[in-house]
Amino acid sequence: MFYPQELIDTIQQNNDIVDVINEYIPLTKKGSNYVCLCPFHQDSNPSLMVSRSKQLFKCFACGEGGNVFTFLQKYDSKSFPEAVETLAERAGIKLPENNSGEYSKARQDYKQRLIECNTEAARYFYMLLRNEKGKNGFSYFKKRELSDETMKKFGLGYSGLDGKGCITYLKNQQFTDKEIIDSGLGVYDERHGLRAKFWNRVMFPIKNQAGKVIGFGGRVMGDGEPKYLNSPETQVFNKSLNLYAFDIAKASRSSYFILCEGYMDVIALHQAGFNMAVASLGTAFTSGQANIIKRYVSDVYLSYDSDGPGVKAAVRAAKICRDFGLSCKVINMRPHKDPDEFIKNLGKEEFQKRIDEAPNAFIFEINKLREQYDPSDPDANTRYDNEVAKLLAEMKDDVSRANYIAACAKEMGISREVLSDRVSSEAAKLSNFNSTSVIPKSGIHDKKDDTKAKAQQLMLTYLAEYPSVYPQIKGIITPEDFTEEPYREVAEKFFEDLENGNASPARMVNMFEDEEIQNKVSDMFTGYLNGVENKEDIGTALVDIIYRIKNNSLEELKKKEKVDPSLFMAKKKEIMDLRKIKIDIPD
Question: Is there a domain that residue 57 lies in?
């Protein structure tokens, strides 16, 4: 049976590979990945690695690999459609009864129609804010000290007192009642018929990673409830898989993101020059959002409210970030409640200082925990020490845990040895302490191996590991330089996705039906880069790979076509000069 790629992507996004495999085989966290005994061969030492950030699995002993679909195909001997159906049921996604190619096109066309409907609504709200009917909304934003430039940058608008004008406008633009409802802009009841979802609210357009309007947040004018109202889940809007202002933050090329709780916090930070600020969409921070962030940066700064709920939300978000291998710090907002208030009172220079001084999120968490125990009471101190030990015991990576034990012991004023013993005791109770598991090295990084395929494989491996490097190499390397299959076919699609900011290694596996090729594609994106220890080494290795690929590409061209000798030598010199370039690896 045929299922459209769009539907397959949705099912894949809603079935985290770590969670799925863990339902079949117990996983243990190892660094930023997870490991387990491989079910596809006789395995006595965990050799199957599962990557949450790449949504891929790979056994470095027997070579089996793939995404969440191929795991079910291999483990349960399912066909691809059967794996799709199993995971769709698991995620509560209803599959179409008629899943023909025409359905796929119709579904894609309809989703585009919903985006167009949201886009037209955004135009209407934007226009209304700037005329007499929107003066209350405009006055609100001005009281919040937003400039006209900032209001334009975020496309801020106003819904009107009753929202009827937006419905009329959309109907005049030839959108049907169903399209208006399905886009999240309208609701229907028997008494009133079609009516607006948003009324008497200032409007915040929400965009996807490609910058297309997929929904809205609305802040009520006055004391009405709810204070903030978001678009409902639709075919184009998934709250857990999008972030407010992510399209702008992604384009900032910052080495870190600032994660906020609300729209106005994000906007205030952007107006102050912090264009890397984003926010979750009216819900708690999710693993899906962490996975999106992981593709672009390694560091996250939490800029949550300084009150009790804000602190709890920050602690929860930090744990999710750690699970995805993101380094997380907490910005101190005191004496003010939130970033918006902080910026207005203390300015951007002081906020930057708070960023520079931000403590590690785990240290922040144990210091907040400390406030619950009387430091003058020995029994309270013991309970506090034990609580910290329990938190440390939950860390599965030995190296990270050792580093955190050292830092926490210093912060707590106790010996490292005492804390380490308590952590070991707590870890034993959890029955998940495994300090001996070692993942076999894949041997993928072999500088002596200068074959064309190896160089092309390594380039894809590096781009999967460091996608933020792509802008530096896209003018040098192109898919046409990949002369070997399936590397060229994968490169064409992966480079396109990198350009659009939605690269997914797991999606590349779905391009092929042949199991051997699927394993090879998994190799491209899950290889260990042995011998590459730091940013300088990584940059040097990439330059060497670029040189080899370009040189191989030119030699292949020479074989296929008659190349003018002088032109060939000029190209050779250009390629030789590539050894002089420098590639910067973001922190």
Answer: yes
